[in-house]
Amino acid sequence: MEKYLFFGLSVIAIFSAIMMLLSKKPVHSLLYLILCFFAIAGHYLMLNAQFLAVVHIIVYAGAIMVLFLFTLMLLNLNLSLEFDKPLIVKLAAVISGGLLLVALVGVLKGLDSGSAPVFANTQIGLAKNLGITLYNEYMLPFEIASILFLTAMVGAVMLVKTEK
Amino acid sequence: MNQVVQGLHLLPINYYLWFCTVLFIIGLIGVLIKRNALLLFMCIELMLNSINLLLAAFSVYHNNPSGQILVIFIMVVAAAEVAAGLAILVATYRNTSSVDINLLNQLKG
């Protein structure tokens, strides 16, 4: 049962990731990327990381992708852009990516599968347990993250402001 | 609500390792072959997401919530990065009327 779920979600994610690279129009790439993100959210749910699944959908599909769509719409970029890298560069990129894949596969092949399903249905992914950890052990990074957000917001507004 | 996935057992960690490796490589190839700056950002998001999933999987398998906290911080940094990056993209689009990254070599000496 869980194997079929895993392989179904993985096939959806990898297919949409490849289609993101192959589609001509940027909006189509974006929509395929959103599909890929939903498949990854399904993977989070399978790990019983419910908080992460919800946050992933809200942050990525809700916020970041809308930001991309707005930029695409404001700049009117949905023409299929004719500039493209030459074929030899693409070929070199794919070959080097494939070489990295082969290297990683070689590393991971020696791994024993381990004693995986020791504690099925683990509870640590729930919002309560994550919150306790976040506000006890990671209080300072949490506050620094809020400062980072403030800086990013001010910086974004400063960058796009036109000079008067 | 505590058990959405009741009855499912965890798969071996190797499955997640393979899946995330493939997703990461796809994102890497996308960064190498694309010239549209917007698509480069999307491929970077894809790479970040594959790493996030792997961190969450390891956190569940080791029963240690620190990995999932790290995923939340990566999401925070990714959101800030996209906001600042798209602002830079809009600012450069005003100057060059294009999002082709090959036009951005004017700082070259």
Tell me what you see in this structure:
The complex is a heterodimer of chains A (164) and B (109). Chain A has helices at 2-22, 26-46, 50-75, 87-109, 127-136, 139-160. By secondary structure, chain A is mainly α. Chain A has 2 domains: 1-82, Four Helix Bundle (Hemerythrin (Met), subunit A) (Up-down Bundle); 122-164. The model of chain A has no long low-confidence stretch (mean pLDDT 85). Chain B is mainly α. Chain B has a single domain (13-96), classed as Helix Hairpins. In chain B, 72% of the residues lie in helices and 0% in strands. Chain B is elongated, with a radius of gyration of 18 Å. In chain B, 41% of the residues are buried. The model of chain B has no long low-confidence stretch (mean pLDDT 85). At the A-B interface, helix 1, helix 2, helix 3, helix 4 and helix 5 of A face helix 1, helix 2 and helix 3 of B.
Quick structural overview:
The complex is a heterodimer of chains A (164) and B (109). Chain A is mainly alpha-helical and 164 residues long.
What oligomeric state best describes the polypeptide chains here? heterodimer
Query: Mean pLDDT of chain B, nearest integer?
Result: 85
Number of helices of chain A: 6
Give the SSE string of chain A.
HHHHHH
Low-confidence stretches of chain B: none
User: What is the CA-CA span between the terminal residues of chain B?
Assistant: 60 Å
Top CATH class of the largest domain in chain A: Mainly Alpha
Percentage of β-strand residues of chain B: under 5%
Distance between the termini of chain A: 62 Å
Number of strands of chain B: 0
Number of domains of chain A: 2
- How is the biggest beta sheet of chain B arranged? none
Helix/strand order of chain B, N-terminal first: HHH
Given the helix and strand composition of chain B, which structural class is it?
mainly alpha
Give the overall shape of chain B, derived from the CA principal axes: elongated
Count of individual beta strands of chain A: 0
